[in-house]
Amino acid sequence: MKNYLTIFWVFFLLIYSANAQQEEEIITKNEWLKHWTDFKPNLTENNEPSQILAGEIAEDLTLSKRETYLLLGHVFVKEGVTLTIEPGTVIIGDYKTKGSLTIAKGGTIIADGLETDPIVFTSNRSVKKAGDWGGIVLLGDGPSNRFGRASVSSLYSELDPKLYKNTNYGGENVVSNSGILKFVRIEYAGKKEYSSSGSFSGLLLAGVGSETIIENVMVSYSAGDSFKIWGGEVNLKNMVSYKSSGNDFSLNFGAKSKLDNSLSIRFPYTSNSRGARCINLKSYDKKEDVDFSKKGTSLVAENLKLINYSRDLEFDIQAGLIKEGVYVGHHTLLNIKNSMISGFKPAVIFEGKIQANQENLEKIKITDVHFKNCLGYVLSKDSGNNAALENWYSSKEFLNMFSKGNQLKILIADAKKVELENKKAKKNAVIDKNVAMPFDLVEKAPTLPGCERATKEESKECFKKKMRSHIAKNFHYPEEAQQNNIEGRVLVLFNIDSNGNVSKIQSRGPDKSLQEEAERIIKLLPKMRPGEKQGQPVTVAYGIPIAFKSL
């Protein structure tokens, strides 16, 4: 046990030290973050609750800094009622009852904190984790592209029927005012209610109008999205999303927003298994639910820093932990400029339904963007569009730049010339079957039992499916790790050589026992038919995360 504690604390101190340096660097480079943000909220001890908020708030109410408030279950501010929160007030979401705060359509919240005295919403657990409580839901009567009455009722399970009226949103009032959220922190929110079909976000803005003030809001350690916008025409300034499991900024259902001077910081180990993004831009989930005669979702974004922090970027990319930074869905508009996107694969990706023609590309503007340490700039899920996208956004008139490591920024237009020359040289080069090739670049994946009849196009999906099946069949959660509540994801990177043998297994994770178990599972893989490139057997590098989580 003593050895385990030593290993754990060495690991903790290394991670803590690295994160502390990163956070100090962030603060130093961004003066507007000083005083009101907190990148280590788990170290802050809050007072025990002295007041309880529950059910429906039916009269104007002011929350005082001298008290600490507990959100017990789902709390609603009804239509026509104003909830005022003094600067410095702490509101705690209850873990057992999945506390949340919803401002109904026609209700108002005035949470006007100060730079030196922010308002804080956080968890009531001693050891805080993402998803400890629900989050904040702000509903307005702004427009959306959905058919019929829009509602967020799916977020709440076992809700008292008389409270459902507080879950509707939407209308035609573009300039509606739902209040103020300014110098506010929202920590450890995003609870998923297992008996409902929805998942809370740190802050959900549904049908919120342009007169509402949303400035200097930080969402950290959210298990869902940090900021989610459904419909409405709300603008956001000085937003911070830190270590979210979901998307940092997710827009849908005809939302029309401006996002200015904001920061998104992702870590591969905290993103959910679906691969969350900094910006997720969509106009619908299902086509049949929206009215295409109405405008789709649009975002104007300026002065953004979208950052993925990896200790080993190449390892994390090969392990499949890093996805695109920005996703652009069908029937949307995007104008992003004067921003930086760092550490993603690729930086921006288009839904395959978006054809790379001039009409569509003029609706998606990417100008003066610095792509740093990204594997790909602007790509499409339909690979047939990629040549057109590269040619369009690498034009000098867009002033888009790229850099790697400490390399100076170079216009993509100039870099593409060098890249094309390198591609020609690689095409004519002889393939070295002993040099590991990334899984995504091989033409045919290694063949696991059960995939023998898969075509070249089907081989990768079949390989991934059989890998998941192999892990599930051989998985064992180390008993000591369970007893000590050690959980997390272990990243395993390994090669399948040109003879079909597994070799060079590496792993990284929160504890040595979990790493050893993950490596044991990979060592049980059978010999395979090797992967192929240009019809030749090659060594393939593959990475996969294995999750260990206590129930």
Task: Give an overview of the whole structure.
The protein is of the alpha/beta class. Strand 29 and strand 30 form a beta hairpin. The protein is globular. Mean pLDDT is 88; it is low at 1-18. Its main location: membrane. Residues 1-20 form the signal peptide.
Unreliable residue runs = 1-18
Percent of residues in helices = 10-25%
Q: What's the end-to-end separation, in Å?
A: 22 Å
Please state the CA-atom Rg, rounded to the nearest Å.
25 Å
Mean pLDDT: 88
Number of helices: 8
- Shape designation: globular
SSE-based structural type: alpha/beta
Question: How would you characterize the largest beta sheet?
Answer: 25 strands, mixed
Number of strands: 33
List keywords for this structure.
transmembrane helix; 551 residues; single chain; alpha/beta; 4-stranded mixed β-sheet; TonB_C; 33 strands; membrane; Pectin_lyase_fold/virulence
Give the topology.
Elements: H1 2-29, E1 51-57, E2 61-63, E3 68-77, E4 82-85, E5 90-93, E6 100-103, E7 108-112, E8 119-123, E9 136-139, E10 150-151, E11 168-169, E12 179-187, E13 203-206, E14 213-220, E15 227-230, E16 235-242, E17 249-252, E18 256-266, E19 279-281, E20 298-308, H2 313-318, E21 326-328, E22 333-342, E23 348-350, H3 358-361, E24 364-372, E25 378-380, H4 386-393, E26 401-403, E27 410-411, H5 412-428, E28 437-438, H6 459-474, H7 479-483, E29 488-496, E30 502-508, H8 512-523, E31 531-533, E32 536-538, E33 540-548
Parallel strand pairs: 1-3, 2-4, 3-5, 3-6, 4-7, 5-8, 6-9, 7-12, 8-12, 9-13, 12-14, 13-15, 14-16, 15-17, 16-18, 17-19, 18-20, 19-21, 20-22, 21-23, 22-24, 23-25, 24-26, 28-33
Antiparallel strand pairs: 10-11, 26-27, 29-30, 29-33, 31-32
Keywords: Membrane, Signal, Transmembrane, Transmembrane helix
Protein name: Energy transducer TonB
Signal peptide: 1-20
